[in-house]
UniProtKB/TrEMBL annotation:
Keywords: Oxidoreductase, Purine metabolism. This is Uricase. SUPFAM superfamilies: Tetrahydrobiopterin biosynthesis enzymes-like (SSF55620). PANTHER family: URICASE (PTHR42874:SF1). InterPro entries: Uricase, Uricase_CS. The lineage of its organism: Bacteria, Bacillati, Bacillota, Bacilli, Bacillales. It comes from the Bacteria.
């Protein structure tokens, strides 16, 4: 949240600025064992952007109705759209820092900007090859995806007058993963409040949001440094670890995912998880002889977990 020196919250801005940029610079990233993802053509580089500004000098716009320093939020929207066209890089983080730095350069009375973007994912589609043999990716037609998506957020302020990225966070949200067998939950506190039976093989459905921060923001903004961490590889590590392990709880599962992510990406300072337990409710249980089961959606209320990890966790875990 953007605040003045006095501690008073003050900001205004525009949300849901939809920017469908075509033919941005292609992204290429280093391969990791858990993922086939090595980049994006960025033929469609589209985002839903939220942009807010703050300044000591905007106080009178609230207290006296003085609009003399108010950049209309409609103009902000135009600024974002026009400069999305000028962006020469290939990452969401780079786009946000480019637009916000330009804005602070253009309007020197703005002290701080807070902005975020959800990437709007479009997936490639296969079409019959003109040669008549096999399929190939269409370079023209894409499918809008409503699955998990990447996001980034950051706050800029001024240092010696120049805009600098003060804090940032990248994420993948709305991951929804089911493992049909190989998860348990037992050994928890049993007392007069306990009704949950122990489970030795539950169909574990989790909703997961994962957030990360770089040690050096430049690695996120400029993929040419070769240390960009794509949300797609974070996603693929997550389902690999889920696949590999017999989890005794969601708590331990996300810790193991975090260890793997921090191992793969030493350029990350911190990783944070927010998970939600949506374990399917069992209607017809499976047996050793017959693996078929029938399950239904769990009823609220839902359990959740939150956990933050840093590179220190790799040292203490002895990996
Ligand atoms: O993985 C889990 N962790 C819990 O803390 C918990 N609590 C609960 O009721 N089910 C589960 N599952």
């Amino acid at each position: 949240m953007l605040k003045l020196r006095s501690g008073r919250t003050l900001y205004y801005g525009k949300g849901d600025v939809l920017t469908y940029r075509t033919y941005a610079k292609p992204l290429s990233v280093t391969a990791i064992p858990e993922s086939a993802y090595i980049g994006d053509s960025n033929v469609i580089f589209s985002h839903n952007i939220t942009f807010a500004v703050s300044s000591e000098q905007l106080l009178t716009s609230f207290t006296e109705g003085d609009n003399s320093l108010v950049v209309a939020t409609d103009s902000m929207k135009n600024f974002i759209l026009r400069h999305t066209a000028d962006y020469e890089g290939s990452t969401t983080e780079g786009l946000l820092s480019f637009i916000s730095t330009k804005f602070m350069d253009r309007y020197p009375h703005i002290d701080a900007v807070e902005l975020s973007a959800d990437r709007i994912p479009f997936q490639t589609l296969e079409v019959a090859s003109p040669s008549g043999v096999g399929l190939e990716q269409s370079p023209l037609v894409y499918r809008r995806s409503h699955n998990d998506h990447a996001s980034a957020s950051m706050k800029l302020n001024r240092k010696d007058g120049a805009p600098v990225v003060d804090t940032h966070e990248c994420s993948i949200t709305d991951l929804q993963l089911i493992k049909v067998s190989g998860s348990s939950f037992y050994g928890f506190v049993r007392d007069e409040y306990t009704t949950l039976p122990e489970s030795f093989d539950r169909p574990l459905f989790i909703f997961l949001d994962i957030y990360w921060k770089y040690d050096q923001f430049g690695d996120a903004a400029d993929a040419d440094q070769g240390r960009y961490v794509p949300a797609e590889q974070i996603r693929d590590i997550t389902h690999n670890v889920f696949h590999e392990m017999k989890s005794p709880s969601i708590q331990f599962l996300i810790y193991q995912v975090g260890l793997r992510i921090l191992t793969r990406f030493p350029q990350l300072l911190e990783i944070r998880f927010e998970s939600n337990n949506r374990t399917w409710e069992t209607i017809v249980d499976n047996t050793e002889a017959d693996p078929a089961g029938v399950y239904t959606e769990p009823r609220p209320p839902f359990g959740f977990q939150g956990f933050t990890m840093t590179q220190e966790d790799l040292i203490t875990d002895g990996e």
